[in-house]
């Protein structure tokens, strides 16, 4: 590998992983810049003062696009990209390459290495120069996700309104599927994602597993009234998350004195949920405080995913002392010990889901006993640990020099 300055350009849209990866590099003196769509410069007095005039809902969104540990001078924002995505959300795949290309040009100019998240990596690596190229693969390999969705024939009338690997055109699917082959190293959050990359031709010596972390101070246990048995789902209301299995299992069980609470952005067309409206409560999107309250009041978080790179909501629930049910095709299954801090079932298995929910309803005392082990599990996955692991891996790739 040609000589580089061993600093890193990072590229991703949104507030990926709470900015922990660029924060990790900055703490270690290894960050050249983060290229993203929008980063709120709340460390600049003019912007901070102006933001106080914004509605509280907008201020809340801005605070999620800033972290004091990552000064805005370390970030290159492209607000026009964020505006275009807000205006035309379905067209993100046609634009996402622009962020990667910009990051790659910076890396080439400064002779830096580059770490790009999936979907921006193809253009980033193509424009980058001589430095190392690392892919952050958030989701399982696209081909594996597509296979899981194609094989799921349960409740075909449950309309999936999210963009996924079934709706991508072949050119996009092929592009995103090839990304791991372009990288010197692929970082994944779970053994499930690692397994899907191995199945699709990525050699094991180019894979590293680094589980995500969680804010253990914010997501923490607290006493919350639980008159009814309360089951909770948090995530996109889509087939990939297995929501159709959960709703149908709940309908068939018809448990007395129990509730199923659904947290996630409601689609425009809600016809798929009509017959479940009387048996489940759809809460829509919640702010962080409201979400934490839901975790705390729940007896069990349910995430019966068909294929999931990790499932951050599982770790957030565990941190709040709430056991979790998930599948062996969700990355967060790495965290679950059967009937110790949660429940594990096969993916796309309605009978197993029904039986597990029935067992939970009859063993609420055992769910309570799982709360302490659930928190203990989460305490092993701090963001500090995540940042440290990332830095060690990247330093080993570039020889450990700054």
Structural account:
The chain is an alpha/beta fold and 402 residues long. The chain folds into 2 domains: 8-213 and 383-397, 3-Layer(aba) Sandwich (Rossmann fold); 229-378, Glycogen Phosphorylase B (Rossmann fold, 3-Layer(aba) Sandwich), CATH 3.40.50.2000. Helix content is 40%, strand content 14%. The protein is built from 16 helices and 13 strands. It has helices at 20-27, 45-51, 56-63, 79-87, 92-110, 121-127, 142-151, 170-182, 191-199, 243-253, 288-297, 312-319, 350-362, 364-369, 371-378, 383-397; strands at residues 8-11, 31-36, 75-77, 113-117, 133-136, 185-188, 207-209, 229-234, 258-263, 281-284, 300-303, 324-327, 342-345. A 7-stranded parallel beta sheet has the order 3-2-1-4-5-6-7, sandwiched between helices. The protein has a 6-stranded parallel beta sheet with strand order 10-9-8-11-12-13, with helices on both faces. Helix 1 packs across helix 16, helix 5 packs parallel to helix 6 (121-127) and helix 10 (243-253) packs across helix 13 (350-362). The longest helix has 19 residues, at 92-110. It is globular and about 65 Å long. The chain starts with 7 loop residues before the first strand and ends in a 5-residue tail after the last helix. The model has no long low-confidence stretch (mean pLDDT 93).
